[in-house]
Amino acid sequence: MNTTKRIRVIIAKPGLDGHDRGAKVIARALRDAGMEVIYTGLRQTPEQIVETAIQEDADVIGLSSLSGAHLHLFSKVIELLREKKADNIIVIGGGVIPEEDIPELKKMGIAEVFTPGTSTKDIIDFIKSKVL
Amino acid sequence: MNLKQGILDGDKRAVARLISLAENGDPEAFKVIKELFHLTGRAQIIGITGPPGSGKSTLTDKLAKELRKRGNTVGIIAVDPTSPFTGGAILGDRIRMQDLTLDEGVFIRSMGTRGHLGGLSKATHAAIKILDIYGMDYIFVETVGVGQSEVDIVKTADTTILVLVPGLGDDIQALKAGIMEIGDIFVVNKSDREDSDRLVTEIEMMLDLKQGDTTWRPPVIKTIASNNIGIEELLSKAAEHFDFLISSSLLKSKRIDRIESEIISISKERFIDIIYNNPDTSVSIRELSKEIYEKKLDLYSAVDIILNNFNRKGVGLC
């Protein structure tokens, strides 16, 4: 049957910050690159994000954080994915994230961190290189 | 992961993976469904359809919560449009169902239409079967925001709920063929808005004109889904409709109709796949198209060529 695999990406905002324009821009760019983007809305707990990724059989989780709580929230997502044996799902991060935190995020298992100013093409290329 | 064992053990990852495989046309999904087919047919399938912005997701969320209170399990398939230009999609119905995500008795899956017309996705039927095998008591299928002719849901659901909101058109809209004909239950959502009573009257008047089978008169229910108003009444009407289907033997004929249309659509797909992709039977449709463009050939003769070629070599159908 003539269907093919689509890359499925969860775009989620963990924690309490209330702005999601950046996340929506990314979601739209990924859509325009032919991906299926499941947008979960604001103020998600790591538990909700991981459960959504499992039910949606996502290839990638994109986490956006502006609140400064990224180290805590992102690590919780990674931990839960391992617990649920779903750590084949690639996690990327974005938002307001200080340069000095990036090595630590990568060490905990975040595949890549995209800070403000990154071109959406870089994000698309990164996802494609990891999933396809 | 052993998907067959996984779904029988209630592993959500297995369910999720099976739905993806079905969406991608992977034979592994159909193999598992074949083997567990005897477990399908248990759930009540409820379609939720209506124009964009009418509140289908919020309504689905509230209905699912009420059913969970009563101890039932609920599967939800939420379909959103795929871009015809890029093949991508933003699937955003989960935003209205956030509280259900962590509920053990609920499974929500978003699907893009992936080029399928009619308000559903081609793999929706397979996803329904997978959730049915998984043991969900109720399966809600929320269509894309429909216009006037996206009526596939009526062939898919046991009970179709058509959600409307005041202010979308005059009463001639209610007389046209298509969407207005498919409701087993009509919902006027956001009924705190002006003109909701007029909409109810218009729907009732349209129903008065209905000819033919009049054994089930679709009820018209006012809801304000965001405030949880009208939800219990809607559920009791859905139950009433299901009882009616069973007592009148309509459930059986409806489901046999559905199976028939599924056989036809799966056969069509397979056949097209064989003509396009099987090296033994395919002819270059692209080449034929060029010849037709140059008027060396006409459309109908080209189809004869394809079918004759298939007849001569038509082996390897499975």
From TrEMBL, chain A:
The keyword Isomerase applies. Keywords: Cobalamin, Cobalt, Isomerase, Metal-binding. SUPFAM superfamilies: Cobalamin (vitamin B12)-binding domain. It holds the Pfam family B12-binding. Residues 6-132 form the B12-binding domain. PROSITE patterns: B12_BINDING. Its EC number is 5.4.99.2. InterPro entries: Acid_CoA_mut_C, Cobalamin-bd, Cobalamin-bd_sf. Its cofactor is adenosylcob(III)alamin. It comes from the Bacteria. GO terms for molecular function: cobalamin binding; metal ion binding; methylmalonyl-CoA mutase activity. PANTHER family: COENZYME B12-DEPENDENT MUTASE, METHYLMALONYL-COA MUTASE, MITOCHONDRIAL-RELATED. This is Methylmalonyl-CoA mutase. It comes from Koleobacter methoxysyntrophicus. The gene is scpA_2.
UniProtKB/TrEMBL annotation, chain B:
CDD domains: MMAA-like (cd03114). Gene3D superfamilies: P-loop containing nucleotide triphosphate hydrolases. It holds the Pfam family MeaB. SMART domains: AAA. Residues 42-298 form the AAA+ ATPase domain. GO terms for molecular function: GTP binding; GTPase activity. InterPro entries: AAA+_ATPase (IPR003593), GTPase/Isobutyryl-CoA_mutase (IPR052040), GTPase_ArgK (IPR005129), P-loop_NTPase (IPR027417). Its EC number is 3.6.-.-. The lineage of its organism: Bacteria, Bacillati, Bacillota, Clostridia, Koleobacterales. This is Putative GTPase. Keywords: Chaperone, GTP-binding, Hydrolase, Nucleotide-binding. The keyword Plastid does not apply. Belongs to the SIMIBI class G3E GTPase family. ArgK/MeaB subfamily.
